[in-house]
Design goal:
Elements: E1 2-3, E2 6-7, E3 16-18, H1 27-44, E4 50-52, H2 70-77
Parallel strand pairs: 3-4
Antiparallel strand pairs: 1-2
């Protein structure tokens, strides 16, 4: 990657959710949901890893943010509430 004439090294990581499916499984309803659940487990496990979906796996518990999102602060500043 080049920025203002200087070469900059960029490291990218990925959190990947993997699932197996049967040909009868609905792609949008079943397969993508399972892969999404597994991906969030990969993210919550520290990122930069893959997790394979296991039957019965559910979304990990949501962690509290360290503060409000910038878009929520912007809405509050404009009097629209969060």
């Amino acid at each position: 990657m080049e920025v203002d004439g200087d070469l900059v090294k960029v490291d990218a990581t990925a959190s990947i959710g993997v699932t197996a499916c049967d040909s009868a499984d609905g792609f949008d309803d079943v397969v993508l949901h399972r892969a999404d659940v597994a991906m969030y487990h990969a993210k919550h496990g520290g990122g930069n890893q893959h997790v394979i979906y296991a039957p019965g796996m559910t979304m990990p518990a949501r962690t509290l943010r360290r503060g409000p999102r910038l878009r929520d602060l912007h809405r509050t500043d404009q009097g629209r509430g969060a």
